[in-house]
Amino acid sequence: MIAQQTIPLETRFHRLEIQNRWFIGIAIVAVLAAVILGVWFANEQFGKTPEEQTVADLATAWTTNDGALLAEVYAPNADVVGTVTGIQGIQSLAREMAAQQFKAEVVGPVTQIGNQVAAPIHLSWDGGEEDVLSVFTFNDDGLIQRHEDIPTQ
Q1: In the predicted structure, residue 49 carries a pLDDT above the cut 60
Q2: How far apart are CA 45 and CA 39, in angstroms?
Q3: Partners of 79 in the beta sheet?
């Protein structure tokens, strides 16, 4: 008969210890990665100034044709230079643009000096697209009073 080979008890515990070290190491790396990702996400979402958040909301409002959100970011008598004045005119323009699949996307850093904010925005619609530098003037309530798009090309 062939004798059964036995592994000494110390060797078995040593193998188990090495496996546990690998598991603990991988778990630590996974937890650290999750924490770093969470901090990055929180900074992206909550690390914005009120003006940066307003510009992000503005792009969302135009893209989704959200009239209520437009009323939250624009002053009631806001002026979209060369286009319309007043929130009703802005909401009407947004409805017209929505029919053309209009989209606005902030594509670079938002810069603020005093109550003026500038943001590079990519605009697209059925059959066209344009990159602009949008310049916003905010009123004392933190709403956009004046909005001007300057073509960059």
Answers
A1: yes
A2: 10
A3: 85, 146
